[in-house]
Amino acid sequence: GAKAVFIDYMQCLKGEGRGRYEQITDVSQALANLRKVLGVPIFALAQLNRKLVDRATVTDFSKFRPESTRPNDGDLRDSGQIEQDGDVVMFIHRPEVLIEDLKPSDGDMSRMVDWEALAGKHRGKAELIVHFNRAGRRGVVNLHFDGPSMKFSSAAKVR
Q: Among residues 30, 9, 21, which one has the least CA distance to residue 86?
């Protein structure tokens, strides 16, 4: 009687293959087959690789561009098979997480003021990126993220 299946952290599942790439490929294909058998949507959360963090590294905060840190299919960790088997691939992008990692620790007050301005500009902002969709539209939905409640909401409702 399940209406949907949710898998938190797909990379924790083990496949038949010897290497990680082969295992994730096996898991992805098995989930696609399971979706067909059960006839319900399967939502599988997958970890991204660390390339995003590398793309966020800047020394001049005025040059930080959040769009350069948007996740894409090349950021899916361990396998491109996930995109091949999925009907929809979506990413949640929260630039403030990456900006937090850029916080200066060298005591330079000028850099700290610049960082604070950048952080304030992106605080609470999030994007739901519909990267791939076999049956519909793709695009970006702007959201607001409330950290204490771990809740996403429509950015239009937030003032």
A: 30
- Tens digits of per-residue pLDDT, 56-98? 777 788 888 888 889 988 887 666 778 888 899 999 999 999 8
Cβ-proximal residues to 93 (8 Å cutoff; 6+ apart), any chain: 66, 69, 70, 71, 126, 127, 129
Helix (H/G/I), strand (E/B), else coil: 135: coil
* Side chain identity, residue 51: K
pTM here is 0.82
| CB-count exposure of residue 24 (10 Å: 0-12, 13-18, 19+) | buried
Q: Are 79 and 73 in contact (CB under 8 A)?
A: no
Per DSSP, 48 falls in state B
- Are the beta carbons of 98 and 56 closer than 8 angstroms? yes
